[in-house]
């Protein structure tokens, strides 16, 4: 019997196993959990010798590390190191004042250097419904190209200098996978929506290797601080993967990094081209995948990503619905689908054939429906394949879709914080969707009650990185006591929430054999908390602090 490197005793240890077992003690050796049980069962000569560290939890709570199964890891680090509006609701003048102040203090004086403004949400510009345009950004006292990049990743606003550098003008044709905003007389207003926004942003996000590694370090440190031990980056690029690979080679990687490689509509013009596209994804994965999967953190490119629709909030309303938005001045607006049905079916099927798990951005029930149809075709074509398709967000669902998810063994990744709404947002939802569809908003409980595997993804930095606050919103459906409760669904329990962020997320990533629960034979990815999330008042969940984060048996974060 192998002796333990460390044992943890006298704790309240939530295992997240099938029975949601609570134990007192665990033993860890070579980065693996080798035993769980009572303190008496673990703290003895069977596991302990002179080389074993005995850690007395003194009643503190231990649980599996948080697995954040949909976020944008590297972007989060970039936001922390750039001009940041901190998600504030601001007028145009207030926004410009903050940007100008940053410009005036910035040590960079090179007029060719892009200024990327992050932490901005288009739908929060005051008064609500107001748009910032290039004509506003052109009022800034600068000759630098300036962009505002909305944290929902659906809108980019460029000043005139930036538009020129993007090569966009009034003669630019309208794209099929998004919009290029124009004035009534055809001039560009600087607003790029959906895929054109992403392409523009990607074209300027050039970093030196050293800058990229520092951003990766910063992002993983922030994640570890909140108890995150594994992540799935929902749109991984070479720059990001190279930076984390460098950290791994330097023995400094402190999260398990999973990645989804995007398959944009513009990258494939015919179904016949899809196998070639998937072969490129395979090559990308082979370049980064850790061939020796072990307790030490590694990298795995396991998913493909499809951006199926947009967002449902005004002014965009590009999320695809089954029935039109309730708009007084527009009776047939359904929102957008960024792939044809035939292309979507083929991309999901070919991803699965190539061994990748398709991961889809679906906000509206119309987008959900076409994805479920595609998954059903994939299941019929590949009945024995262990492919775990998942959809992210599902902000508006239709009643019949819960049972379809269960039947097709498809998973949902929720950003729980989106069930916390302002009064204005609740009123907007009621207007846009009417009473019948309103009951499908952020339907977390309805999915769980139908037996669907539901996981958690913070979507950072689309929203601030605040995992425990997100968990609280899942349990209250309120921003706080001063805001209304989104009464379209029930509150979740602490166990439901924490399973979504541990073993369920591991299942979505096809990693439940290795992580997600505290069980013999699994990697020792563990966190120690300052309070017990199962016994504190629900409104205290946001105050949970992580004392220690452990990945593969090694401490990667300890509260000072």
Automatic annotation (TrEMBL):
GO terms for molecular function: hydrolase activity, acting on carbon-nitrogen (but not peptide) bonds. This is Amidohydrolase 3 domain-containing protein. CDD domains: YtcJ_like. It comes from the Bacteria. Pfam families: Amidohydro_3. It comes from Gilliamella bombicola. Residues 54-557 form the Amidohydrolase domain.
